[in-house]
């Protein structure tokens, strides 16, 4: 039920949803003034939220910057937050466009910067399914010849709060000492870091999967609208609302 309402609420944060609602009002209303304002509002939303420069500016302020890892230090674990896989119609797992989270985690292990990889992610689908993200990712890692002893999975969580809560219990049970590296998308890191610290889990941010703000602006970015920018704003707006909610919680 929580997942259903979370998905429904997320759809309301899409700038495209706002624009479509205003366009519908402009189309259906009979009042000329309301029609004009609704149409102007829809156009402004589409222009503002499709401008890459504005998104880059916001991302540079919002995203948590990576912390330089001390030379030679080996962390006991890298916690990789789920959300980078899914299950298709054939009941098979697949990687989505946030799989940089796993790639960076595998790099940390292969480079000898962490002793263990913790995959935190269950099944957040609204329909019943036996698929869990952590279990499937572990299977893939074993096929890639990563040792079973270096892989820990937490497959109960369906959101970031549960990621923190269940991962803490897992790490405590195997007596791995903090701090741990927290690996997740740059747009998601600020809220994740806040939640993990709120739950008492000592973590060091290791952001990846940058949607914006990590490359210089080109001349076209100032003037040419981009549909992908509108898509990226939905992630940032969701995170913005999410962290406000977390601050309001007791």
**Fraction of residues in helix:** 40-55%
Biggest β-sheet: count, sense, barrel?
5 strands, parallel
Sheet/helix structural class? alpha/beta
SSE pattern, N- to C-terminal: HHHHEEEHEHEHEHEHH
Helix segment tally: 10
Radius of gyration: 20 Å
Percent of sequence in beta strands: 5-15%
CATH architecture of the largest domain: 3-Layer(aba) Sandwich
**Poorly predicted sequence stretches spanning 5 or more consecutive residues:** none
* CATH topology call of the largest domain: Rossmann fold
Tally of DSSP β-strands:
7
How many separate domains make up the residues? 2
Q: Which CATH class of the largest domain applies here?
A: Alpha Beta
| Terminus-to-terminus distance | 22 Å
CATH superfamily of the largest domain: HUPs
Largest sheet: spatial strand order:
5-4-1-6-7
Average pLDDT figure: 92
Query: Overall 3D geometry?
Result: elongated
């Amino acid at each position: 039920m929580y997942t259903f309402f979370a998905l429904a609420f997320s759809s309301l944060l899409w700038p495209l949803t706002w624009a479509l609602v205003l366009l519908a009002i402009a189309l259906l209303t009979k009042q000329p003034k309301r029609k004009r304002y609704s149409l102007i509002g829809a156009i402004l939303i589409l222009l503002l939220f499709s401008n890459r420069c504005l998104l880059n500016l916001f991302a540079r302020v919002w995203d948590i910057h990576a912390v330089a890892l001390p030379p030679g230090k080996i962390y006991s674990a890298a916690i990789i937050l789920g959300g980078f896989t899914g299950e298709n119609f054939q009941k098979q797992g697949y990687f989505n466009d946030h799989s940089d989270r796993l790639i960076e985690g595998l790099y940390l292990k292969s480079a000898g910067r962490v002793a263990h990889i913790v995959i935190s992610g269950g099944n957040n689908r609204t329909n019943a399914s036996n698929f869990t993200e952590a279990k499937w990712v572990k299977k893939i890692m074993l096929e890639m010849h990563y040792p079973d002893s270096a892989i820990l999975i937490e497959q109960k969580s369906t959101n970031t709060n549960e990621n923190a809560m269940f991962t803490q219990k897992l790490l405590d049970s195997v007596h791995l000492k903090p701090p741990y590296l927290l690996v997740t998308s740059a747009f998601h890191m600020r809220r994740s870091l806040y939640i993990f610290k709120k739950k008492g889990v000592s973590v060091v941010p290791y952001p990846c999967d940058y949607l914006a703000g990590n490359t210089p602006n080109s001349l076209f970015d100032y003037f040419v609208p981009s549909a992908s920018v509108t898509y990226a704003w939905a992630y940032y707006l969701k995170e913005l609302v999410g962290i406000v909610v977390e601050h309001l919680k007791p």
